[in-house]
Amino acid sequence: MGTSIDTRAGEEKSRVQALEEKVQELARRLESLEERAPEDRVAIVVFSGDLDRVLAAFVIATGAAAMGQEVSMFFTFWGLSALKKGSELSGKTFFQKAMAMMSPASSIELPVSKMNYFGVGAKMLRAMMKEKNVSSLEDMISLARELGVRAIACEMSRDVMGIRDSELVPGLEHGGVASFLADSLKSRTSLFI
Amino acid sequence: MSQAFDKVLDARGMNCPMPLVNARKEAGKMEPGQVLKVMATDRGSVADFQGWAKIAKNVELLGQEEESVEGANVYVHYVKRIG
Questions:
Q1: Please, how many CA atoms are within 13 Å of residue B40, restricted to the half-sphere of its CB?
Q2: What is the DSSP secondary-structure string of A180-192?
Q3: B59-69 tens-digit pLDDT
Q4: ipTM for the whole complex
Q5: Which residues does A contribute to its contact with B (CB < 8 Å)?
Q6: pLDDT in tens, A80-102
Q7: Using one digit for the tens of pLDDT, what is the confidence trace for B29-75?
């Protein structure tokens, strides 16, 4: 009799142990799933330096921020023009100077993707937006800041194009592909504009 | 519909995304349980406010209505701050 009770108690113990192990394993798996689950986050790559495209990026960014999403915008190549506050030429290489002279010195000078006609198209679009009471790109940029949208300047393209930190608006973060991916992998929405 | 509200935001004449952005700012200043009435002329705001309420955890859309003020269509949204 005694042995049979002992055996049952032993069986009970090993079953509890097995359950505990199972629970621990589930907790581990849940934790790793939670780590990978998307957050309320939106990541946007702004590659284009066209007024209309950059505007679309900022409308989405400010809208998403208003909806309670954390928004990061990564500016790379032509998109960096939207973050410029002026162009410097001194001390740059020949190519960098040429690049600086042919690129917009700030968001104000961004061309439109179609029908630009040396800037006339961009001026026309801005006038038409004003007529319809749509916020200007510059208003959107400061609004994005106010709403806590993060702006990250791509270090590699900034360096290649010879754009200095002093030519960019203050308050930017600097990063590379991994900083974008770290955000976009956690985001529900990632856009390349 | 005679929905009670605590504050009014006049977003008439504003365009996307400003009605939403300004409503969010106003809602942020309000206490949980308070209701914001938003008046907008942007037709897209109807779907925008529905989307906002669906996604955001701290607001609830109590109702929407359309009225005509001085010949212009005005879209009214009642947003309640929750938590």
A1: 26
A2: HHHHHTT-SEEEE
A3: 999 999 999 98
A4: 0.73
A5: 40, 59, 62-63, 65-69, 132-135, 143, 147
A6: 999 999 999 988 999 999 989 98
A7: 999 999 999 999 998 899 899 988 888 888 999 999 999 988 889 99
Token readout for A163 is: 């754009």
- Whether pLDDT at B1 is above 70: no
**Disruptive mutation site among B18, B20, B77 for chain A (greatest number of A CBs within 10 Å):** B18
With contact defined as beta carbons under 8 Å apart, do B79 and B62 qualify?
A: yes
**DSSP letters for B8-38:** EEEETT--TTHHHHHHHHHHHHSPTT-EEEE
Which structure tokens are listed for A49? 């330096």
Q: Is B77 exposed, middle or buried (0-12, 13-18, 19+ CB in 10 A)?
A: buried
Q: Contact B18/B48 with Cβ under 8 angstroms?
A: no
Q: Note whether B56 contacts A68, CB cutoff 8 Å.
A: yes
State the nearest Cα–Cα gap between B13 and chain A, in angstroms: 7
Beta bridge partners of A145: none
- Please state at what angle helix A137-146 crosses helix A51-66, rounded to 10 degrees: 30
B72 is catalytic: no
Cβ–Cβ < 8 Å for A101, A74:
no
Strand, helix or coil at A175? strand
Report the gap between the CA of B15 and the closest CA in chain A (Å).
Answer: 5
CA dist A10 and A5 (Å) reads 8
Spatial distance between the Cα atoms of A111 and A62, rounded to a whole number of angstroms: 22
Per-residue pLDDT reduced to its tens digit, A104-140: 999 999 999 999 999 999 999 999 999 988 999 999 9
